[in-house]
Structures are given as structure tokens and as C-alpha cells.
């Protein structure tokens, strides 16, 4: 039976000892859409996923997944969902085919059905050529695709992906994005946690940002970017040693920096603020290599909403 909202959480709280991780999380994921859950490390993203997938009980609040309460109807929830966790769950000593047949057996599929389902998934996730190789020989991208295939053995209606592309090279990440898009197009509802803001921008219908245990924003990527409005001035410095001085010169502007790129970014509205920022750097004796002006990105949304700007 279809539900308008595949996932609905209200007022979820969770503490570990004296540390409060969730302080009243509210989330809604419409059936057939992808919600990306963003937040700083330790903000509660994985804890939220663990509660919604019945791996962890909440201290308070309610959550309904696929029409079932996660605390009272855990078995029914688990039948409706798939989960790809941060750490791959596949066995290195088995082949790709053996791994999928093993997962099919856990879902009480007969041997013939398990073989057929494994073959379907190996083909769908572009692993057929490596089906009979030990997983220990797989690349990182292949392992993640196999892990995702394992979570789809039971053809779940709802899929939880907890940072599935962490550690992958750009090519492998793009390949996994293509698989996620195919799953979404086939009607699968997806909740994705990610540390890559570009990933959320590329894949998500909606983005929810968690900070200090609460959802501080929930909207489409485009709407979130329009909300913060201001263009971003990116100043590339000639010398990394000038970065602290540049920060001091732009104190109070919400500037944030990327030491690896020797750059500092600040929000500006109009030519006047742009000239003022550059004048502050000039008066501070900061040597500027080049400047760029661009529209806001999800990175800017993240910095503003999670208050990590320097």
C-alpha cells in the first residue's frame, strides 16, 4: 500500500550519557523522492538513520517508516527498507555472487530464487563480469556498488544510504550517483546522508540540514541557495601565511577559508560590499593573487546554517 510520506519523524530525541545528540528532530520524506541529510560531524545524522532503521531506540518522539511505527513495529519496518551503512557489510572472502546469494538466504529466499535475484542485481549494478571474483579483489567503487546491491536484495521500497560515497575517487563516486539516480527513477524512496555537498546538490529533491541536534533548514537545493541570496567573493591569496591576517581584516563578515586552496570566501551584496572587502584586505597588506565572484552554492548554505564560518 503506497504512502504519501514514506518517512515521517516528529520530535526525535536521543542522548548518550550526558551528551544530547538529537534535540527534537522533525523530518518528512515524500514517497519516491530523495532527501539528503547534511550536518557537521557529530550533528546526529547517523543516529537519526539508526533510529529510523530500528537499530537504535529513540528516547522520545515518534517515527513512522512505510506506515509502521519504528518502536512498535520494527519487524514490519525492516521488511520495507534497505540500508547501506558507512562501513561495507559484504564479505571479502566470498565472491560477489556468493555475497548476494547469502543475503538472499537471510531473506528466506529459495536457492533458485536467490540465484536469479543475485544475477539480476549483478547485472543491474554492472558487476556481472566480476561476479565470480573474491570481493577482496574489488576496487572501492565496486565494493560500494556490491554493498548497495546487497541492500536491494529484498527490493525494498525505502533505502537508507549513510555516506555511501565516502572515500571513493571522483569516477567511482559518479558511477554510484548514476546507480542512485536509476533507483530513484524506479520509484525507490531514498534518505541519503553525505559529507559531499555537491552530491546533495546533484541528487536531492530536498535537503535537510541538522545542527546541534535539530533540523535548521529543509527545502529544495535551489530554494536554500536562493534563501541566503548574497553572491560569494572568493579571494585567492598569494601566500598562505596571509590567511590569518585576511581573517582579521574581514572579521564580522562571516568569511570562511580553505587553506589548501589558499582562499577566503565572503558574502557580498552588490559592488559596494565587494569593493569594501577588497579594500579591507589591501589595507591589511594581504597579497591577492586573483578574485572570483559566483552565485551561492550548498557549501555556502551549509556554512551559514551550521555556523561553522570563521
TrEMBL record:
Keyword Mitochondrion: no
One GO BP annotation of this record: response to antibiotic
Cell location: Cell membrane
Topology term for the membrane: Peripheral membrane protein
Domain ABC transporter: 7-237
InterPro entries named among the record's database cross-references: AAA+_ATPase (IPR003593), ABC_transporter-like_ATP-bd (IPR003439), ABC_transporter-like_CS (IPR017871), ABC_transporter_ATP-binding (IPR050763), DrrA (IPR005894), DrrA1/2-like_C (IPR025302), P-loop_NTPase (IPR027417)
Matches recorded under Pfam families: ABC_tran (PF00005), DrrA1-3_C (PF13732)
GO terms assigned for molecular function: ATP binding; ATP hydrolysis activity
Keywords: Antibiotic resistance, ATP-binding, Cell membrane, Membrane, Nucleotide-binding, Translocase, Transport
Superkingdom, natural source: Bacteria
CC terms in the record's Gene Ontology section: plasma membrane
SMART domains on file: AAA
NCBIfam families, per the entry: drrA
PANTHER family: ABC TRANSPORTER ATP-BINDING PROTEIN (PTHR42711), DOXORUBICIN RESISTANCE ATP-BINDING PROTEIN DRRA (PTHR42711:SF19)
Family: Belongs to the ABC transporter superfamily. Drug exporter-1 (DrugE1) (TC 3.A.1.105) family.
Protein name (Swiss-Prot/TrEMBL): Daunorubicin resistance protein DrrA family ABC transporter ATP-binding protein
Organism: Sinosporangium siamense
Taxonomic placement: Bacteria, Bacillati, Actinomycetota, Actinomycetes, Streptosporangiales
Amino acid at each position: 500500500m503506497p504512502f504519501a510520506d514514506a518517512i515521517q519523524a516528529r520530535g526525535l530525541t536521543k542522548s548518550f550519557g550526558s551528551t544530547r545528540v538529537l534535540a527534537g528532530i522533525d523530518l518528512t520524506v515524500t514517497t519516491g523522492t530523495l532527501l539528503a541529510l547534511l550536518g557537521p560531524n557529530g550533528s546526529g545524522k547517523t543516529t537519526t538513520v539508526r533510529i529510523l532503521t530500528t537499530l537504535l531506540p529513540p528516547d522520545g518522539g515518534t517515527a513512522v517508516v512505510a506506515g509502521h511505527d519504528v518502536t512498535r513495529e520494527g519487524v514490519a519496518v525492516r521488511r520495507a527498507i534497505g540500508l547501506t551503512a558507512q562501513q561495507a557489510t559484504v564479505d571479502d572472502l566470498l565472491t560477489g555472487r556468493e555475497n548476494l546469494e547469502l543475503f538472499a538466504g537471510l531473506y528466506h529466499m529459495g536457492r533458485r530464487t536467490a540465484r536469479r535475484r543475485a544475477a539480476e542485481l549483478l547485472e543491474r549494478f554492472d558487476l556481472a563480469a566480476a561476479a565470480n571474483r573474491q570481493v577482496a579483489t574489488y576496487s572501492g567503487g565496486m565494493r560500494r556498488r556490491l554493498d548497495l546491491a546487497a541492500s536491494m536484495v529484498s527490493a525494498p521500497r525505502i533505502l537508507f544510504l549513510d555516506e555511501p560515497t565516502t572515500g571513493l575517487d571522483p569516477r567511482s563516486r559518479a558511477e554510484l550517483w548514476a546507480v542512485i539516480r536509476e533507483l530513484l527513477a524506479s520509484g525507490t524512496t531514498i534518505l541519503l546522508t553525505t559529507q559531499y555537498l555537491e552530491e546533495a546538490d546533484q541528487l536531492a529533491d530536498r535537503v535537510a540540514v541538522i545542527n546541534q541536534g535539530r533540523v535548521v533548514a529543509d527545502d529544495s537545493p535551489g530554494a536554500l541557495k536562493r534563501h541566503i541570496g548574497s553572491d560569494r567573493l572568493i579571494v585567492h591569496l598569494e601566500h598562505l601565511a596571509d590567511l590569518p591576517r585576511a581573517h582579521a581584516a574581514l572579521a564580522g563578515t562571516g568569511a570562511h577559508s580553505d587553506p589548501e586552496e589558499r582562499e577566503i570566501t565572503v558574502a557580498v551584496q552588490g559592488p559596494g560590499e565587494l569593493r569594501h572587502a577588497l579594500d579591507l584586505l589591501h589595507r591589511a597588506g594581504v597579497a591577492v593573487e586573483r578574485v572570483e565572484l559566483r552565485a551561492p552554492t550548498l557549501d555556502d548554505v551549509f556554512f551559514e546554517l551550521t555556523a561553522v564560518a570563521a
